[in-house]
Design a protein that fits this description.
With about 190 residues, this protein is mostly helical. The chain has one domain. The protein is about 75% helix and about 0% strand.
């Protein structure tokens, strides 16, 4: 287990990876899916507030950053005319799941329910970007996903208490970030053959 202050390093790593994505977006190299990044900005905040309610403590900073960084990317996407904005049925489902997460959290007063619904909705919100990472890898920037994965892994190593409230979102972020990094690397290797 690492000292809890490593959370600050995890937050910095996440921020630097996101800045790389923002800069790449502003230059027109990266083409973020606006719907995905909007939902990725909103949904972690549900988990963040649930973690605060469940007294997770400093490790919840990683979850906050996982919402704040996509918010920056979402804003930057408006300065990139090639960024995509298309509301699909999947986007609507994700929005409903996010609202359901808030509703069930309100009904049950159970932060774990809110975290679970945030994870499920976040995963659905990420599907367009996951698919785009494989089909059009040149439109993505690996650095933000690599940084998010490292940040989540550092957070997992800091945890003193292994409750769903403390490990649920960081573990999910590590797994989804790793998936996107692997997909981007596979496509990059195929392109060089």
């Amino acid at each position: 287990m690492l000292d809890e202050r490593f959370i600050y390093l995890a937050a910095l790593v996440n921020l630097l990876g996101s800045l790389s994505y923002v800069i790449s977006t502003l230059k027109g190299k990266t083409k973020p899916n606006k719907v995905t990044w909007f939902l990725w900005a909103i949904l972690p905040f549900i988990a963040f507030f649930a973690e605060i309610k469940k007294s997770v403590g400093l490790p919840s900073l990683m979850t906050f950053m996982v919402g704040f960084s996509p918010l920056c990317i979402f804003i930057a996407s408006f300065f990139n005319k090639k960024a995509h904005w298309k509301i699909t049925r999947l986007d609507i489902i994700c929005g409903i799941l996010a609202i359901a997460g808030l509703f069930f959290w309100y009904l049950t007063r159970d932060g774990n329910v809110a975290i679970l619904f945030s994870i499920v909705a976040d995963l659905f919100a990420g599907v367009p970007t996951i698919v785009k990472s494989y089909i059009y890898p040149e439109t993505e920037n690996i650095h933000a996903f690599l940084a998010a994965g490292v940040s989540a892994l550092l957070t997992l190593f800091v945890l003193k208490s292994w409750t769903f409230a403390s490990y649920g979102f960081p573990l999910y972020i590590f797994l989804i970030s790793s998936l996107v990094v692997i997909l981007l690397q596979i496509r990059k290797q195929k392109a060089y053959r």
